[in-house]
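Hello Y.,

Per our agreement to keep a running log of every chain we model this quarter, I'm adding this entry. I've kept the format consistent with earlier entries: sequence first, then predicted structure.
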Amino acid sequence: MPGRIRPEDIAAVRERSPIVDVVGEYLQLRPAGGGSLKGLCPFHDEKSPSFNVTPGKELYYCFSCNEGGDAIRFVQEVDKLSFAEAIEKLAARAGIELRYEGGGYVPGQETSQRRRLIEANKAAQEFYATQLRADNSNRRGSGGAVTAETARAFLAERGFELADAERFGVGFAPQAWDELTRHLRGRGFTDDELAKAGLARRSSRGTLIDMFRGRMMWPIRDLAGDTVAFGARKLDPDDDGPKYLNTPETSLFKKSHVLYGADLARREIGRQRKAVIVEGYTDVMACHLAGEPTAVATCGTSFGDDHVKLLRRLIMDAEGSDGAVIFTFDGDAAGQKAALRAFTLEDKFVSQTYVAVQPDGLDPCDLRLKHGGGAIRDLIARRVPLFEFAIKAVLGKHDLDSTDGQLAALDEAAPIVARIKDKGKRERYAVNLDRWLGFMNEKFVLGRVREHARDTGRGRGATIRSADKKPADQPHQPAYRYDRSDPVLRVEREALKLAVQWPALCGPEFDELGADAFVVPVHGSVFGLIAGRGGVASAGRAREWVAALLEAAPDDRARAFVNELAVESLQVSGDPDEKYAGVILARVGELALGRRIAEFKGKLQRMNAETEQATHMRLFKELVKLEERRKALLDRATGG
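Predicted structure for the entry above:
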């Protein structure tokens, strides 16, 4: 094993890693006065930018969450790397060859596992790109009818040239079982590295075979441009595998954290304050080639919360923002469903959200092929606000020529309008809704929308106790809106569902959490109800356990809420196991410790370290222990 990185090399990495350039690869920065720059913090959610970068001091600091440091520290925190891994990443970026104490430079020996996996993916991308251009139609051992010629024909049929493939790093995976594996072994990569990178897998006989065979290959890169995974489309119609296949999740690749094309689009997204979200890899290519260079796509998963956070940082989606987020979907039923799913995330953006749907159902790739690049630009220009699209999609399901149909449509559309935060905009949409329905009775429609707006966020089971029964030992807690999209609420609710439905999986770990581990008051009350029955350790059979909890519930509302927990599906396919329960419970515990740590930090900041030295030291030691416990729980919750 190599020794420590030489101090002079670390100094060189710092010197050649300007803080503005490093941070600018992850988020959009704007002048903030006094020579500083400001952006949305990548370490917590915020609507107004509080993350500051000071080029003169080569430091960053968030005035909201108190995270700060230099470029190396930033890369450590944002990419979850060790100090050495962060140095290696920045050194590779700056073209610096690192040396290690205790020995001279030995190529390949000194790199961390993360860097080795990135290098393996880079070598694989180069291999796939070379294969796309190869004349292998008559080569022995090609493994089947699908060849590079098949792949080139696939691109040509969609209007792409080899130069376009080169621009996006597109390649071809041969149909042979282990061609990539043998190639990378020859480059010095081990079987373990290939498996951990998701480039190869074990066959039923225990031999290592390529993960992708007979497929078009798109490299998926992080914002820094490192290839971390691949998206692959099958070319053989007789292949019984999925049409699209992604690299399995690895230490490099978390599909919910990555957007395909973001490495190419990030600068234009920041410059134009606009992002276009499409559905596929060829759609991204078509948009960029048509003059819409802000296009990105998800990688084998639905657009979700982490994608929102990524785009908000790139747009600098802050209060007063004039940014635009445009979703493009196919015009079929699946496309409408995807658009309505995106609508559930609308309120997480500050920027205006839009939908662009081609009436004839063509996706951007087919649209460019049939009508040229100008048609894609026209599609984006014809975008409509996401709220308008969602409302009209609901109205389209009803017969608006009948009174019953109009009323049914109003009842389904009014809650959508009620979700609009801006009161003025909400009332303007209510007026539009009246016009679209054909009621010609704005007062009636406005009243129905206002009624739903008052109800928004109450949720069922807002409290598990009678309103006039607040236990004396329960500290005052602020009102908590029961928002099912809240990630903290979701994980707490999942833990309670496990405790109600699968108590045997929870073991003593659930009982040891305590009511204070639940930030949502109703959840803490449910925990108290379970504890009052002896905890999950005394649950017995699940059926009798649920019956006992329902019987012990203090009132009808509490009983209804426990009943919801007993019948609601868990967020896992199939039956849960002990590993899944352990991850959920660890996450609840980690979040609770995070809140306690924040309290300790607040106390320490308010204390005078000199006059209250003993107390300050005691609290600091307790804080260190809490941090260690939290890290252990976080590792368990994330599989680290």
